[in-house]
Amino acid sequence: MIAFLNAGMVTLKQLEALNWIAELGTFERAAAKLNTTQSAISKRIQELEASARVPLFDRSQRGARLTERGEQILALGRQMLALQDQILELKDGRQAPARRLRLGATELSALTWLPRLVSAIREAYPAVMIEPEVDTSRSLHDRLIEGSLDLIVIPDVFSDPEVTSVPLADVQNVWTARPGLVRSRRALDFDRLSDHTILMQGRRSGSGLFVNKWLTANGVSFKRAISVDNLTALVGLTVAGLGISYLPQRCFRPLFEQKKLVILPVKPTLPAVPYAAMYRNDRPSAFAAAIADLARQTCDFGRQLEG
Asked: Can you give the pTM of this predicted structure?
């Protein structure tokens, strides 16, 4: 298509003439459709053939029969005419054309409020095609930077001047374990906590990066630590009694209520993890900013799987 356009000046009027000749079968009918003369239609086709440098019609045949290259140019021309119609619809305030939203989120959002966000987007933008991706914070941020995602929701732990970060909510984590694993009812300090195997969120997890940075700043290290990037797997291993982990308190409240896990009193408490909606600001971003605002309105890490 680029090579075709570079060959010379191509106008929408020429493509429009080609389209209606193919649609109606003759130059005369196309001229009547476009409210012009047959000679004007012929001139447009001659100019288009000069730009394309190929004959568009097989003049050895009767009637307006396209050549193979003519059919190829017709297909491209119809795409361009369709784009023109979509632009005019936007100008007239009519329904916008379908657009794509490549939306990335971590497991925590997917387990809680992501369905509500999807419902809000579909209500506000009925024609949008949503392509969700659930992955680790590190992977989602890398894909946002490379341009394969339009907006992501992750812990606000990465800094980049080309990325706008819209604060959503803070997530409070608590230390938790299978009932009976820790027999002391007194508050634990980190020295006593370190007597147990600690299940940590890994370095590809935004929450893991945030908490690990805080632990390091406070001089905390654990003798036996297992790194797990998958939140669901981390919960399963904790329920199985493999060790102590920190988990979002509100999201996993049902596990505490069902006595599958207990909250351990540990001092000092962990800092809340800030979550944000992020999009690139070095590209057209009005749509992404609107979606980020919808995320801000619907974000609730304490409500599980509500659409």
From this structure: 0.69
174 closest CA partner among 235, 224, 131: 235
- CATH class for the region spanning 100-170+274-298: alpha beta
Residue 71 DSSP label: H
How many C-alpha atoms does 215 have within 13 Å on its Cβ side?
19
CA atoms within 13 A of residue 65's CA, in its CB half-sphere: 6
- The single-letter code of the amino acid at 205 is S
Supply the mean pLDDT for the chain.
88
Q: Binning pLDDT at 50, 70 and 90, where does residue 2 land?
A: very low
What's the token pair of residue 35?
A: 């409210």
Indicate the CATH number for domain 173-271.
3.40.190.10
pLDDT at position 176: 96
* Highest CATH level, class, for 2-91: mainly alpha
| DSSP output for 161-227 | TTEEEEEEEEE-EEEEE-TTSS---SPB-HHHHTTS-EEEE-TTSHHHHHHHHHHHHTT---SSEEE
